Amino acid sequence: MRVDAFDFDLPPERIALRPARPRDAARMLVVEGDALSDTRVADLPQRLRAGDCLVFNDTRVIPAQLEGQRGDARIGATLHKRIDLRRWQAFVRNAKRLRVGETVDFGQGVAAVAEDRLPDGSFVLAFGGEEPVEVLLERAGTMPLPPYIAGKRATDDADRSDYQTMFAREDGAVAAPTAALHFTPELLASLKAAGIASETLTLHVGAGTFLPVKADDTDDHVMHAEWGRIDAATAGRLNAVRAAGGRVIAVGTTSLRLLESAARDEGTIAPFEGDTAIFITPGYRFKAIDGLMTNFHLPRSTLFMLVSALMGLETMQAAYAHAIASDYRFYSYGDASLLLPGG
Predict the structure, then answer these.
(1) By the 8 A CB rule, do 143 and 157 touch?
(2) 181-193 mean pLDDT
(3) Which of 312, 57, 317 has its CA nearest to residue 179?
(4) Residue ranges of the chain that CATH labels 2.40.10.240
């Protein structure tokens, strides 16, 4: 499909720079079939059914944004995907000033060698020393806020907690699974009391989620791979939910993409561990999920393509037009939508 089919006019002031407080006070647009309802995230227990199951991503965001020097050149690096204990694939700012074999000093005793340059222009950075790379990042790195936020304000101490979900426990993401930022222990307790279950999986979100689609046609866009895992016990419980008539509702596009990567053709979910580069566009047949809770995405993004695949492009264009006209807040720190294609 033409990428410009997924374009729309988003006023810059609609992009949220801070999250709602408390988290579950954020607004939530419910899209059931083609019907729209304005609600709050705190209303979620009333919008789902007993027997449904929400699936969260338990990845934890690491301080993966680094600023350093190579000689007199300023070099920025956003870690994208772990290769091994000391090496990461990274997107580099001012890359024309960095050559393979050169060392970037990120300060605080943290340095990395540009070991290789990959075909997509990213670098393999090999960190020196004996301390775990996670320790080095805590010392020298900052939280990698999306460029549409970081370009408008500096990252600060509040982001270390704001840009982390309550489920975060598996280090490795360089972007938050932002739909889950809306959840609080109180909301989770209300969901449990309403008979709505929850499960977790792990997908380490990479910096590729921030990259714009530069191709004119979706067939020409290449997704970056991300590592994920669904264990056998979790897969079994999710299959049991659907077998009993419940719905599997992915919380966030990251959970959805991993569930669909793990799905068998007949719709059951298999255990999964490894990389996925699944790219979901209209025409895709969903196998593993029955709904999605997600934030509002940017024009021409792979994530707006995904929600259009789930609900239909015309339905999502109408929903987003309503959200913009109704002053919903967009993107990582913004409001939520609950998408239920079955109505």
Answers:
(1) no
(2) 98
(3) 57
(4) 65-141
Give the bridge partners for 90, in sequence order: 79, 123
Burial of residue 96 (CB within 10 Å: 0-12, 13-18, 19+) is exposed
293: CB partners within 8 A, 6+ apart: 28, 44, 54, 179, 249, 250, 251, 252, 336, 337, 338, 339
H or E element that contains 313 = helix 313-325
What local confidence, expressed as pLDDT, does residue 251 receive? 98
Q: Which two tokens stand for residue 1?
A: 């499909």
Q: Which residue has the tokens 């053709």?
A: 265
Q: What is the pTM of this model?
A: 0.93
From the list 290, 277, 165, the residue with the least C-alpha distance to 228 is 277
| Dist CA 333 CA 212 (whole Å) | 19
d(CA 246, CA 49): 8
For residue 317, give the DSSP letter. H
As annotated, the residues of the chain forming the CATH 3.40.1780.10 domain(s) are 3-61+162-340
Q: For residue 213, what are the contacts with CB-CB under 8 A and spacing of at least 6?
A: 3, 221, 300, 301, 302
pLDDT class for 291, splitting at 50, 70, 90?
very high
DSSP run (H or E) holding 136: helix 133-140
pLDDT in tens, 204-255: 998 777 677 889 999 999 888 899 999 999 999 999 999 999 999 999 999 9
**3-61+162-340 architecture in CATH?**
3-Layer(aba) Sandwich (3.40)
Amino acid 247 reads R
pLDDT digits (tens, 9 = 90+) for 103-132: 999 999 999 999 999 998 999 999 999 999
Q: How far apart are CA 251 and CA 169, in angstroms?
A: 16
**CB 310 within 8 Å of CB 342:** no
Mean pLDDT confidence for 163-190? 96
Angle of helix 253-262 relative to helix 302-311, nearest 10 degrees, comes to 70
3-state DSSP assignment of residue 80: strand
Per CATH, the number for 65-141 is 2.40.10.240
